[in-house]
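Quick note —
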Amino acid sequence: MVTDQLKDGYDVVVVGGGAAGLSGGLVLGRARRSVAVIDAGEPRNAPADGVHGLFAREGVSPLELLERGRAEVRQYGGHVVSGSVETVDRADDGFVVTLGDGRTVRARRLLVTSGLVDELPDIPGLRERWGRDLVHCPYCHGWEVRDRAIGVLGSGPMSLHQVSLFRQWSDDVTFFLNGLPPLTEEQAEELAARGIRVVTGEVAGVEVTDDHISGVRMSDGTVVARAVLAVSSRHVARTGFLAALGLTPVEHPTGMGEHIPADPTGRTNVPGVWVAGNVTDIGAQVGAAAAAAVMAAATINMDLIGEETRLAVEAYRELRSDSAGVSSP
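Predicted structure written out below.
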């Protein structure tokens, strides 16, 4: 990734250069704010073949989308800097951001778009298939796996919802309970009515043939043929660098992981810090994450305008006071 030289300070530092971070940086640049987007180069959707459900960019490569976004931020004077943020500390009326290589930069405001990490069940073979034939979101991948033999691995509170969704894209869906509590009579009836097979027992691994998933291996050695697997990962926010500010993630209401709570504009309970994208909205797709960052960036700009107006009024009043105290000759 081409990187810009980091200046000493900016109006806004954006931590994370995915769809949310670049959208925020673009809006701030167009608002004539000095802005740096700092990105570690580890996009969550890098293994995917394309971004789906994004208006006018359907199927675009995730890496191509990011490259386009970086160029657009730079077009309006923003900097895109390669690096990982280690810590953020309060300093005077803003923040000091420290990178992993020791570089530091000051920021008046902070927009955190660092995203999340997907924690998968501890089953051999899953991580290697992630983003290929191991998927999680039917709206992101359902069309691409339509009419195939889909298995849904039970992993948490949203698994039953997930298996019901994937049935929309295929009439050959199997639900592997994989240690989840037994289904209620009503749940079992609903799945049976839609032709969804339920397999009890623990999943031991994934069978792969010719670089494609071919089945699910159970703990008793049985192999259930499947071509695609879906799983609800646990979402862990990438926010360790915010600890010094007292901003820590909390459990998400869905029980699927953790997030940083914020108001509808992305404003957190720490003055001067906004969040956008999956770090706060764990289910947001690319378009939603970008839209949230646009709102956050506009709100940050207004917040800065308010501060600048207050300082200008104070200076104006002081100037008038000084002028009034000078006697005429």
